[in-house]
From TrEMBL:
Belongs to the chromate ion transporter (CHR) (TC 2.A.51) family. It comes from Paenibacillus germinis. The chain crosses the membrane at residues 85-108, 120-140, 152-183, 203-224, 236-254, 300-322, 334-354, 360-378. InterPro entries: Chr_Tranpt_l_chain, Chromate_transpt. This is Chromate efflux transporter. It is a multi-pass membrane protein. Its main location: membrane. The keyword Transmembrane helix applies. It comes from the Bacteria. It is found in: Cell membrane.
Amino acid sequence: MDTAAKPQQSKQKALLEVFLVSTKLGLTSFGGPIAHLGYFHNEYIQKRKWMDEKSYADLVALCQFLPGPASSQVGVGIGTIRAGLLGGVAAWLGFTLPSIILLLLFSLLMKAMDVSSTGWIHGLKIVAVAIVAQAVLSMGKKLASDKSTASIAIAAASVTLLWQAVYSQVLIIVLAGLIGLFAFKTVSNQDYSIIQVRVHRSVAILCLILYALLLLLLPIFSGLWHSQLLSLFDSFYRVGSLVFGGGHVILPLLEREVVPQGWVSKEVFLAGYGATQAVPGPLFTFGTYLGAMFDGFRGAVVGTLAIFLPAYLLIIGALPFWNSLRANVKIQSAFVGINAAVVGILLAALYNPLWTTAIIRPYDFALVIVLFGLLVFWKLPPWCIVLLGAVAGEALYYL
């Protein structure tokens, strides 16, 4: 009896641990999807060693390929690897709930408050710069440290900055993979670590089939049954299924879905997007706010589930095949190039949108240097950096 109970207790402990750690990240991960990958890297990889650096970079590359919020998919992937299917759900809930709750409050208080230009929000943007700079430094040392891989990273960063298109990041990663496939033929497979993915392939295939069926059938059902909530689910599911290139791309897609139909006004839409920038967690919770403005709590639930469901189905569908792809020598060669490109994409994001929107005055540059030093050399935890950045940003606002 005791022997049988131990595995169950171990699963429950792992599940609780995933939820608590992801909730901590959900409360402190400011700065958008690129910054989230930095927070994840610090908490999951550097601090807790739940995954090695190469596996993390491979997972990030996989999620960059998939439509949807890459940072949320990375979190779901890590949670699933750590504690099974329920671990992925726990990771998503923990990371997303704080933002959902805050945006529900914003939907109630929006007309009474204007937080889009306050000093502490600007301080949090500076925090994001420090966090991403640390992630670029750490990942670059391991994944783009020689002449060839560093060249790929530099090229990826340059093209990303100069070619601001929806599919540019996907095409850059594909091209980097092809370069890696032919340029790194002698890559060793000895350092490859098997990741235990606790998802059966039959479940994964079912998720992929469900993803495609919903994408095809929801517009038909929405046309047959004139339900506002079904129309909302259809619109948000379609947006969540087609977003490539990060959470910010969701803005024009959602605007075309909700404003012309009169679900929300343009002013309400833009105010909510500003509020979404101010809260931690994934930018896709903008769907929570829009759903709440459309139909209260019911709309918030429908909007949240619809916009995140495609991303969840895709990452669960892809994970069981991940080790097979990574174990293949040719795929390993391709991933050398892909991982270097991911470093370059992160480097580009460090400049735009993070640096260009956060570092405006010499005071901002001084603050980011201090925060970076405290994070990298003094090893302060990210939540301390978040608090210090918010307080300092509010103080600098009056200078």
